[in-house]
Structures are given as C-alpha cells and as structure tokens.
Amino acid sequence: MPKDVVLGASVVTILGDNEVCIENYRGIVEYTECLIRVQTKGKQIRLHGKHLQIEYYTNDEMKITGRICSMEFCK
Amino acid sequence: MIQAIIRYIRGYVKIRVQGYSPERFLNLCRYHGILIWGLTPVGNAYEMYLTLDGFRRLKPIIKKTRTKIRLVKRQGLPFFIHRHRKRKAFLAGILLCMGLLYFYSSYIWDIHFEGNDRWTDQTLLEFLDTKEVSPAMPKSRVDCARIVKDIRTQYDDIVWVSASIDGSCLRIQIKENEDTFQQAEDENPEDSQERHPTDLIASQDGVITSIITRSGTPMVHVGDSVKKGDVLVSGRVEVLNDAAEVIGYQYQESDADIYADTQMAYHDEVPTTYQEKKYDRKEQRWLFYVRFPNCQISVGTLKHGFHKWETYTQEHQLRLGENFYLPAVYGMAVVKSYGSEEKKYPRQKIQEMLSQNFTQFSKEMREKGIQICKNSVKIHVDENSAVARGTLYLNQRITETADTEILEIERNEQNEPIGTDG
C-alpha cells in the first residue's frame, strides 16, 4: 500500500525553485506574499519565498508558484 | 488551454475576500469542493477566481466566516452575452456569419492532387473541368466514384485513383504506372532496327591509348598516330575462302571504345573593366495595384524622368486554397534609378575569375568523360586584357560514326557447262 495513503503523509513535489505541489493537507493556516503555512496531518509545512501565488486550491492538491527560498516542517 | 476555454464558456468571477480570517474562508471553500485558482494576497485581503457555480454556493460560507466579499471582475461568455444583449445588429452579424460559414462549407473550394508525377495538376484540373468538376461546385454534385472512373478511362498509365471529400477540399490520390516510362524508353532502339553498316572514324588527331572492339574490324593499334577522318574500326568484315582470298564482305555496325591522347588549345579572355551600378535610394517610384478583369486599383506612380533605370514587377494571382484561382491579381512595380561607373577589376580578382573559369571548364570536360592529363595554361594580365591560354593534353574517346563504303567483288567465275552423262 502506498505510504501517503496508509500514513496520511503529505506529498510535496518541488519543481525547480518556482513551483511546489502539495497533496494530502488539511488547510492553509497563513498566506502572504513571502510565507505560506500549510497544515498537514501532525505537522506544518512552511514555505518561504517571494511573490508566492496559489495557482489552484482544490480538495486534493494545491500548486504554489513564485520564487521559493526554503521549505521546512515544524510542529 | 482547453480548461481556459471551458472556463470562459461557463463564465467566472474574480472576488476579493476580506475579514478576520480569510484563511478559514479558503479552507471551507476547499471542503465544499469549490474550485479556487489564481489566489493572490492583496494587503490584508485575498483575490481569487471562482466559477459562477462556485460563486453561487458561497453564501453560507460567507455567513459562517463573517468575511466580506467584493466582486472585482466578471468574465466569460455568459457576461459577454448579457452585456451585448441589446445590440441586435451584432447578434444578426454573428448569426449571418455562422449561416454563411455553413452555406459555404457545402461547396468544394479546393482540389488537391497527390502522387501525380507525369500528369501535372494543371492537366488533371483541365480534364476534370471538362467533366464539370471544378472548385466552387456544390459538394452534393460531387460523385467520387464517377471522377475515379473518368480519370481511369482517360489516362491509361494511371493504375489507381482515389477521390474523397475532406472538408471543403476534394482530395484525389493517384498512383501512376512507373513501368510505362521504361517502356517508352525501350521503344526507341526498336525504331532504329533498320541498321546500316557504319565505320568508326577519328574525330580528331591523336595517339591511340586503348581500343576495345565489340563489332567490326579494328584498323589501328595502341600507339598508332591517327589523323582526323582516319578509319579506326571498319564495318566491313572480309569473308575469306580456303586460299585466303576475299570472296565477299559482311557489313555491320561498328562498335568500339577507342581512347586517344589528344591536344587542345585553350583560350579564355575576361574583361578587365566592369560597369558598377549605383542605385539612388531616393530616386525610386512605387506602384501597388490590384487588378480585376475590368478595372485596376493602384496606389503610387511610375512616371519618372530618370536617365537610367530598372523596373521590377512582382505579381500574384489571388487564390483560395491550392487550385482555386480568383480573377484578381495583386502586385507591385518599382522603378529604380541608377548611375553607372566604369571600374577596373583588381589584378587578383581577374586571376581568380580566370582560375574559376578554368576549374569550371575542367569540371565540364570531366563530366563529358574527357580526362585532362596535363596542361600548360598560363594567365597573362596586362593593362587592357586578361587572357588564360595554353595547351591541354587530353585523353578522350575520339570515335564518330560514318557510313561504310560498300565494295563489290569482281567475280571471275567460269561458267562451266554442266555435263550430263548419257
């Protein structure tokens, strides 16, 4: 069985430094031009960057574009 | 791209969400399956795009999150139609356009041929025209089976034809019989079956270097010097009796490969001066025109008083598709004024030109099967002339055909009486 289904772990796909796709998340906690915080099961994903924009936001997946500087997982 | 078109047809809106916790608004939209795209933060608010359907389902979410929504932009076909609902002529134009499109698409506007090498498009078009098949005919009158049959009947060397209607284009695929080309070439030798005896004679002076005789009697050997007109291979073969006397001749067409060393004088002269044209960009006249069978519309003029000038004309016939020519021609004409000045070629350029000419000449000789063994060509350039001259030492075929002289044998036959016993 795939781990993301069994454990509910989020799937993050980073394409270069200007595109990030996140799957398996709970919702957006904070969203500004330079920081996006996304709640996942148990942890939070923090994305730092410039001119961050959410291309689309659906129940399954969200796509963030802009200049990504860093990404971290925190409690 | 397709998604964008679908969104446009269904209509979408851009909204601005403001309030205590707009993030909650976003999460609730996601929870209720409302698609959001192009989400950007603007100050303390967010701007985003929603479908019309999604926008209509926002009310309970707004109430729950206590956010304020402002409609920023409406886009898409439903809004476009609503905005122009009072423009009757516009609507009539769209309907007319669609109607004309539908009407004109019921005609054939182009005939496309594929696979024809021997018969040109123009020939086939002219033939089809006689069968009342031409561009601008209604599709309903096109009988593909009939066209195929007509082409097959008319052209024997077309072995397969397929006609099909592709949109407004009549596509005709053809397969020609390639063997017919071969047959036509083979027919020629049969014509010359009435052969008459021929000799091979020398076309110029030289020293024989190689001789391979296929038919006839060779009269020369390798190393022999021959003059122009000498018989090299005779078409007359002697018939000898037991006493090695000639009792008759058999005549045939001589055939041989004979190569000889020959000489040839080479002379090439190029002018040392040339006329250089200087165009005056300001001294030009332009004329653009569209010509119909009965009238011509033009812009510009070609009237001028230039001393020396050149005229260029470009003309194109208007056509729809590939083969449907309209009776209208458009083009442009330009008259350019120029002044000429006599200039001298630099010495190096002249040498280059003469060398190039000689290289080209050598290439042409090689293509003709003539080998240049040695040459003593030298370039002489002086004030008024530039000449390359010398002698070429060649190795080439020197045969040409000539009729064989028919000889009569003087027969000294004795009419011996036939004795009968008894």
Give the topology:
The complex is a heterodimer of chains A (75) and B (422).
Chain A: H1 3-6, E1 11-15, E2 19-23, E3 27-31, E4 35-39, E5 44-57, E6 61-74
Antiparallel strand pairs in A: 1-2, 2-6, 3-4, 4-5, 5-6
Chain B: H1 2-10, E1 12-18, H2 22-31, E2 36-42, E3 45-51, H3 52-56, H4 59-65, E4 68-75, H5 77-83, H6 88-104, E5 107-108, E6 110-114, H7 121-130, E7 137-138, H8 144-154, E8 158-166, E9 169-176, H9 179-191, E10 198-202, E11 206-215, E12 217-218, E13 225-226, E14 231-234, E15 236-240, E16 246-251, E17 255-270, E18 273-291, E19 296-300, E20 309-320, E21 324-344, H10 347-367, E22 371-375, E23 378-381, E24 386-397, E25 399-403
Parallel strand pairs in B: 6-9
Antiparallel strand pairs in B: 1-3, 1-4, 2-3, 5-7, 8-9, 10-14, 10-25, 11-13, 11-17, 12-14, 15-16, 17-24, 18-19, 18-21, 20-21, 22-24, 23-24
Q: Can you list the strand order of the major beta sheet of chain A?
A: 1-2-6-5-4-3
For the record, the CATH class of the domain at 2-82 in chain B is: Alpha Beta
| CATH arch. level architecture of the domain at 2-82 in chain B | 2-Layer Sandwich
- Give the CATH class of chain A: Mainly Beta
Instruction: Examine the coordinates and then state which fold CATH places here, giving the name of the CATH topology of chain A.
Output: Immunoglobulin-like
Domains of chain A (count): 1
Fraction of residues in helix of chain B: 25-40%
Measured by residues with Cβ under 8 Å of the partner chain's Cβ, the largest interface is: A-B, 15 and 16 residues
What is the share of helical residues of chain A? under 10%
Mean pLDDT of chain A: 91
Oligomeric status: heterodimer
- What summary fits the major beta sheet of chain B? 6 strands, antiparallel
How large, in whole angstroms, is the Cα Rg of chain B?
Answer: 44 Å
What's the alpha carbon Rg of chain A, rounded to whole Å? 12 Å
CATH architecture of chain A: Sandwich
Strand content of chain B: 35-45%
Silhouette of chain B: elongated
